[in-house]
Amino acid sequence: MTYQTHRRVVITGLGVVAPNAVGREAFWHATSRGIPAIKPVLRFPTIDLRIRVAGEVCDFRVEHHIERKLANRTDRMTHFVFAAVQEALQDAKLILEHEDPKCVGAVIANTAGGVEYVLQQIEALHVRGPRYMSAYTAIAWLQVANVGQTSVQYGLQGYCKTPVNDMVGGLDALGIAYAAIRRGAADVLITGGSESLLHPCVLLILGQSDHCATGDDPHAYRPFDQRAAGTILAEGAGICILEEYEHARSRSVPIYGEIVGYGQTNDARGLQAPAYNGKQYARAMYLAMKEAQIRPEEIGYFSLDGRAIPQSDEAEVDALQRTFGADRQYLPVSIPRTMFGHSFAAAGALDTIIAVLAFQYGMIPPTINCEQLIPQYGLNLVQNEARPLSHSTALIGGRGIGGANVVLAIKKV
Q1: Which fold has domain 260-411?
Q2: Nearest to residue 15, comparing CAs of 113, 69, 89, 112?
Q3: Which pTM was predicted?
């Protein structure tokens, strides 16, 4: 394979499994209209848990996407991946049999692994005995299972990675895939993130932290609001087909958008929440914008991290101030996932899908639940109803425990 630099990278296919919809078109319909999807958890009892509401994918039928034997050998997170990859490949009109398998790969992020599968198998071990514990436990719970199963299913022989980076894994996956295609390490990459962490064990643990909203209020995800009390969890998957620009043109397929910049920095705080200042986050914004060669006034929309933890929200505003100065009050910002929750590694991929669909439909989806914004922040927040998108460039930002700051820059082609 010949290595080059500065090849263009475009998005040609989208696949979605989300709490508010399964499928790209239904996802946009719900998200653009501000339809809430956070509800009481239904898959297991939560009466003894502090976290009792979440963005749960309730209308997903695994048998519609993979055969029963494979479903029994894989975790719910991988089921989501199969469904989203199928839709994305169909959307991109990509026939993998016509591609060089050495030039096609996958970069799919995951954070928690196959929690449900491994805990079910541990229960079988202790309740029924070793003979009843599946041999597939050895691989089904690993974060790399999603990329591994996708590679087997589609015969991928090219560039493959599994980013594990808390809440920014999905953005990292897109940035890593973008860099790989840009330098010539691949022509096509199946990219995004998946997460299925809604399990009593996970909710019990995270319910003891100060990162997640607790209780029964489905509207409790309120970033930049005077009542901000943490993030509401979600599950799902977002997959994008990334291609080298000339490769996509040779297939004469529609292009949703182009990735033009990627910035990643770290607060160097260890396993703690993001820093309470925005210095390094602002540097990630600068790096993404510098690589994209875009000016602040060209940005039509910034999809914010919106952690809904007061100190983290304040730090994000600080980063915006450092990057955009007084002009930040004119920059449209939004956190659409307030409708369906934060799905960790899937979140950045879903945010990116929302942004490219915003290009297609010419509108910025809203933020909901935030009726009592902190006035000192001075944010131009798109609230409750979608707003027309006036420019063809967007930024997507995210921050993770451990200090990661990631910003992706995309534009309409």
Answers
A1: Peroxisomal Thiolase; Chain A, domain 1 (3.40.47)
A2: 89
A3: 0.97
DSSP 275: P
Query: Helical H runs in 93-216?
Result: 115-127, 137-140, 145-154, 169-183, 200-206
Q: How is residue 233 annotated by DSSP?
A: B
Q: pLDDT tens-digit profile of 274-314? A: 777 899 999 999 999 999 999 999 999 999 999 999 999 99
DSSP 8-state class, residue 331: S
306 in Cβ contact with 382 (< 8 Å): no
DSSP 66: S
- Could you tell me the CA-to-CA distances from 245 to 59, 181, 262, 369, 406 in Å, in that order? 35, 10, 17, 39, 24
Tell whether domain 9-250 is in CATH 3.10.129.10: no
| Cα(261)–Cα(116) distance, integer angstroms | 36
**Per-residue pLDDT reduced to its tens digit, 110-149:** 999 999 999 999 999 999 999 999 999 999 999 999 999 9
- How many helices (DSSP H) and strands (DSSP E) are in the chain? 12, 16
Q: What is the DSSP letter of 236?
A: E
Q: What are phi and psi of 11, to 5 degrees?
A: -105, 120
Contact 226, 374 (CB under 8 A): yes
Q: Where are the domains of the chain?
A: 9-250, 260-411
